[in-house]
Design a protein that fits this description.
Organism: Melaminivora suipulveris
GO molecular function, one term: ABC-type transporter activity
Bound molecules: adenosine-5'-diphosphate, magnesium ion
Number of helices: 8
Helix content: 25-40%
GO cellular component, one term: ATP-binding cassette (ABC) transporter complex
Keywords: ATP-binding, Cell membrane, Membrane, Nucleotide-binding, Transport
Distance between the termini: 36 Å
Radius of gyration: 18 Å
Protein name: Polyamine ABC transporter ATP-binding protein
Order of helices and strands: EEEHEEEHHHEHEHEEHH
Strand content: 25-35%
Length: 241
């Protein structure tokens, strides 16, 4: 298992041009915690994840992984794994090569690649599908490939950007449970972004609600539900959508 790390955002501000998108965001995810970030479309969730992964730069504030300020560390050196809403798999490569890609880029040995890709595919239950291309898989299977490709690089931190939103309702519930048990098994510090309050409530140890780039409330799911600090949180957390 990877050593567990914390993730901390301290008073982070980010603007695209002159438009502020993240405003004074402060958040701490504890080592091994499954933390959900909930907010409506356009509230800045993906922007925050890209910032943590190193693809966006904040104008002020600090970003710490494992207690170290990583603001100046490039994405590939941050050891952060990210799963995107659209999976972003290579359509021309089979499942095995999609999962192996990051290891090949790192010039790991053939033996190490064989071992790690095999283990990752087993973890998500896709050993039988190694030779298929993404287009020959169901949505749920493609999602598992995306997960395998991310965990195979042994990240310290797992970022999930609405990974279930392209799946139909029944599969979404099944994948949600799989995701949760995989996270438990790996003990990975996880930041899970969703606009679905039920998804957040059922998976997360704690959660935060973001609106227009401002964190409204952080706490255990039950706290936000029972004691929302404002009307926005009450409406968003309390309403099934
Ligand atoms: P969410 O993931 O919560 O839907 P985003 O982080 O994608 O929200 O977007 C937050 C805001 O920033 C939106 O108003 C969006 O239009 C804007 N935005 C996102 N990416 C860019 C970009 N590259 N350039 C300018 N504005 C952007
Ligand atoms: Mg988004």
């Amino acid at each position: 298992m990877n050593p567990q790390v914390s993730l901390e955002c301290r008073d982070i501000n980010l603007s695209y041009g002159t438009t502020p998108v993240l405003r004074g965001v402060s958040l701490k995810v504890e080592p091994g915690e499954f933390f959900a970030l909930l907010g409506p479309s356009g509230s800045g969730k993906s922007t925050l994840l890209r910032l943590i992964a190193g693809f966006n730069r904040h104008q002020s504030g600090a970003l710490l992984i494992g207690g170290q300020d990583v603001s100046a560390v490039p994405p590939h050196a941050r050891n952060v794994g990210m799963v995107f809403q659209n999976y972003a798999l290579w359509p021309h490569m089979n499942v095995w090569d999609n999962v192996a890609f990051g290891l090949v880029e790192r010039r790991e040995s053939r033996d190490a690649i064989r071992r790690k890709v095999g283990a990752a595919l087993e973890l998500v239950g896709l050993q039988q599908y190694a030779q298929r291309r993404p287009g020959q898989l169901s949505g749920g299977q493609q999602q598992r490939v995306a997960l395998a490709r991310t965990i195979v690089i042994e990240p310290k931190l797992l970022l999930l950007d609405e990974p279930l939103s392209n799946l139909d309702k029944q599969l979404r519930v099944q994948m949600r449970d799989e995701l949760k048990s995989l996270q438990r098994k790996l003990g990975l510090t996880t930041l899970f972004v969703t606009h679905d309050q039920e998804e957040a409530m059922t998976t997360a140890d704690r959660m935060a609600v973001l609106d227009k780039g401002v964190l409204q409330q952080v706490g255990a799911a039950a706290d936000l539900y029972d004691r929302p600090v404002n009307r926005f949180v009450a409406g968003f957390v309390g309403t099934a959508n």
